[in-house]
Amino acid sequence: MPKNALNITREKNFSEWYQEVISRAELADNSVVRGCMVIRPYGYSIWENIRNTLDKQIKNLGVQNAYFPLLIPLEFLEKEAEHIDGFAKECAVVTHHRLKQTDKGLEPDGKLEKPYIIRPTSETIIGESFSNWINSYRDLPMKINQWANVVRWEMRPRLFLRTSEFLWQEGHNVFATQEEAKEDAQKMLNVYKDLMENLLAISGIPGQKTEDEKFPGADSTYTIESMMQDGKALQSCTSHDLGQHFTKASNIKFTDADTKEQFAYSNSWGITTRLIGSLIMSHSDDDGLVLPPYVAPYKVVIIPVIHDESQKSDILKYCQDIKNRIGDNVYIDDSYKKTPDKKWDWVRKGAPIIMEIGKRELEEEKVYYMIRYLGQDGKKSESLNEFVSNYKDLLKSIHNKMLEKNKKHLEQSIKTAETLMEIENIFKKQTCFISIPAKFWNNKHLEDIMEKYKVSYRCYPFDDKERLIIAKSY
User: Fold this and answer.
1) For residue 387, which of 353, 422, 424 has the smallest C-alpha distance?
2) Are 438 and 468 in contact (CB under 8 A)?
3) What is the dihedral sign for C-alpha 108, 32, 280, 210?
4) Which CB contacts under 8 angstroms, 24+ apart, belong to 241-245?
5) How many CB atoms lie within 10 A of CB 114?
6) Nearest to residue 205, comparing CAs of 187, 230, 227, 186?
7) Which one, 16, 45, 124, 143, has the greatest CB density within 10 A?
């Protein structure tokens, strides 16, 4: 039986495997604050790469970044009943504005006349500003995004997937017409699809959420449902057509060209650090994390192999020469650890290309490296000139093959069923996506089966709205 770099395999226990991948790759830790996480530098670098790439894409669409308060007045959420009902059980409430020292220690003091909610989402607080900024049709469209954190109490936390505090971006766009708002919400979903495929090498099913699964207060919610290696769905992103629900609640009006006053239309859209969980479960293997090259903190990690101290200076200089010639997110690991330990550290951290450079490579002006996603089958030796010449094509090839593998897994794991009996028989045998006739939505017998197998509605696929995808999910 082959030995793996992790103690737990995916087949043995997928949940424990996931936790070990995160731990051994040094991505995040559980915090002393229950339900929260500490994102370590390596994990945060991945988030920064996601953030920086997406930030450029949305700015190209005329969206501007801003920042809004963390604390939201309770009465703001009360303006939109359906919205607050959807988040009420998850809200963190601030009731006091100071502490005082007592015999028992520090205790809350100075009770607020009206409590504040730590933002679970920002439609209402942003709507307050929009109502002041928007007066005329000339002020539209207004497109605003913020990178922030939110808090939604989580009773069963899992790193990156479900934590009480998480990082995200939330976009909020306002338009003069319903058609513009809806079209823009769908356009933003395509931006996320591009991000997932071209940065994260993750495919998914774009579609519309069912009525009971949509965002509280939305007319429609659009999603991309990705499939993890264990056959479960993960909602990778959402975009919401909000109609006039929030513009009416926040009194966002404008005067049109005929000087007639009317309510605007809005949408909102976002991705979170949950994408890192999707990244882990989509690509990683029993040796640890596997990262597509364009999102990795380092595309190439160079490990100097030094057996003779007299050659150390020359080998390190050659490593630096390689780094200078590649010139793109390269890290030289000259730490105190032994060479095999360094190698396996970077295997577990998922570095796309791991080089080992020693005496032979120095003398022959070669590079010896492993392509991480191919594992032990990805080892290669070639001249430095050849590697540098083909480097960008190599990165592109690695990314494309990882995306192709992910797409193939998704396609092979979507089963089709036409009857309730077929649906149950499939779920008895495997965990997967099942495509069923859309008419089955809200069918009592179907929902009995779904409850039995812990399955939920995922979406109506855009490419076939007469079908409905159901699956177990994270």
Assistant:
1) 353
2) yes
3) negative
4) 241/181, 241/182, 241/185, 241/267, 242/123, 242/181, 242/215, 242/217, 242/218, 242/266, 242/267, 242/268, 243/178, 243/181, 243/218, 243/219, 244/178, 245/80, 245/82, 245/83, 245/217, 245/218, 245/219
5) 8
6) 227
7) 124
Residue tagged 């629900």 (tokens): 245
Residue that finishes a domain, picked among 283, 317, 343 = 283
pLDDT score, position 186: 97
CA angle (464 as vertex; 461, 466 as ends), nearest 5: 100
Would you state the pLDDT for residue 2?
57
The per-residue pLDDT of the chain, averaged, comes to: 96
CA 274, 276, 281, 286 torsion: positive or negative?
negative
* Domain membership of residue 119 as a residue range: 14-283
Read off the pLDDT of residues 373-406 as tens digits, 9 standing for 90 and up. 999 899 999 999 999 999 999 999 999 999 999 9
Q: Say which CATH number the domain at 310 has.
A: 3.40.50.800
CB 277 within 8 A of CB 234: yes
Q: Where residue 164 sits, what CATH number does that domain have?
A: 3.30.930.10
Q: Is the pLDDT of residue 38 over 70?
A: yes
Q: Give the pairing type, strands 253-255 and 261-263.
A: antiparallel
> What domain count does the chain have?
3
**Rg, Å, the chain Cα set:** 25
What is the 3-class SS of the chain, one letter each residue? CCCCCCCCCCCCCHHHHHHHHHHHCCCEEECCCCCCEEECHHHHHHHHHHHHHHHHHHHCCCCEECCCCCEEEHHHHHCCHHHHHHHHHHCEEEEEEEEEEECCEEEEEEEEEEEEEECCCCHHHHHHHHHHHCCEHHHCCEEEEEEEEEECCCCCCECCCECCEEEEEEEEEEECCHHHHHHHHHHHHHHHHHHHHHCCCCCCEEEECCCCCCCCCCCEEEEEEEECCCCCEEEEEEEEEEECHHHHHCCCEEECCCCCEEECEEEEEEEECHHHHHHHHHHCECCECCCCCCCCCCCEEEEECCCCHHHHHHHHHHHHHHHHHHCCCEEECCCCCCHHHHHHHHHHCCCCEEEEECHHHHHHCEEEEEEHHHHHHHEEEEEHHHHHHHHHHHHHHHHHHHHHHHHHHHHHCEEECCCHHHHHHHHHHCCCEEEEEHHHCCCHHHHHHHHHCCCEEEEEECCCCCEEEEECEC
Where does a domain end: 358, 378, 402?
A: 402
pTM value?
Answer: 0.96
Q: Are 301 and 355 in contact (CB under 8 A)?
A: yes
